[in-house]
Every structure is written in C-alpha cells, then in structure tokens.
Amino acid sequence: MIICLRTLSNEMVKKIDSSLYEDFKSHYFGDEILHRLDLCSMLKKKQPNGYYYCESSIVFGKNHEAALVKEALYRETQALLSRLNQIKELLSSPEIRMKISKELFEDRHNSNSKWQSYIDSGSPSA
Fold first, then answer.
1. Residue 28: C-alpha distances to residues 9, 42, 57 (Å)
2. What's the CA gap between 125 and 115, in Å, rounded?
3. Domain that holds residue 116
4. CA spacing 20 to 30 A to 108: which of 79, 85, 98, 118?
C-alpha cells in the first residue's frame, strides 16, 4: 500500500482537514500484516519496475536476515542491469564497434609478429 496525498494541482498535502475523517475515528478497518516498510522518494526517478526510488527499507519479522540478503541481491542486480544497458548502448555505436575491431586486429597482428620473431630467432624478441 502506498500512501500519497496530493492536491489536484499536484502539490503535497501537509495537513488533512479532520472533518474529512471525523466519522471514521473509531472505525475498525481490520489488520494488515507488515513485513517491510519502504521509505521512498517521490522526487527521484522511479525504478525500472515502476516503483518509487527506495531510500531505505525496514524489515520486520523472522525472515529479517533472508529479506536483507534478498534486498541486497536485488539492488546489486539492478545496478548490474543498469551498467549492462550502458554497455549495450555503447556497443550499438558503429564508431565504437569500429575501434574495437581495429584494436583486436592490431593486437592479433602484433601477437603473430612476436610469435614469428620467436620462431625465427629461437627466443622471444624484447
């Protein structure tokens, strides 16, 4: 459940008029089991999954350590996916692919020359 209070002009509501909830002050809405509380920023860019940027999480219950490990793995995965997307974007550039091909070809040519020098002289060239 995400609690967010804004006006129609997209301004944050700082205080709710008590007359709006007066009839519900003694109303029992039921129980909700809370496992984790996410402290999210609505000002930062949303995560790739559409969820608000999570500044921190508080985990409750017996599975605290497992949840911490799972959350850490999730954050690491998100960071790696972000880096992977940056690499893919770089590799989509024809100029970058041309530079990589050139470097690979030159390294292969230099490696073959050194090997040929070794064969010809009986020892590696300095």
1. 32, 30, 27
2. 9
3. 93-126
4. 85
Give yes or no: residues 81 and 59 share one domain: yes
Please indicate, yes or no, whether residues 41 and 81 belong to a single structural domain of this protein: yes
**Residue 52: Cβ within 10 Å count:** 17
For the chain, list the strands marked E by DSSP. Answer: 36-41, 53-59
Same domain, 83 and 107: no
Residue 58 CA to residue 81 CA, distance in Å, equals 24
- Residues 90-116 pLDDT 10s: 999 999 888 888 888 876 666 666 666
pTM exceeding 0.70 = no
Integer CA distances (angstroms), 47 to 22, 79, 81, 87, in order: 37, 11, 12, 19
Tens-digit pLDDT profile for residues 31-45:
887 878 888 888 889
When divided into structural domains, the chain yields a total of: 2
> In this structure, is residue 101 part of a structural domain?
yes
Q: Are residues 55 and 68 in the same domain?
A: yes
SS3 59: strand
Cα–Cα distance for residue pair 41/54, rounded to 1 Å: 6
Q: What is the pLDDT of residue 107?
A: 66
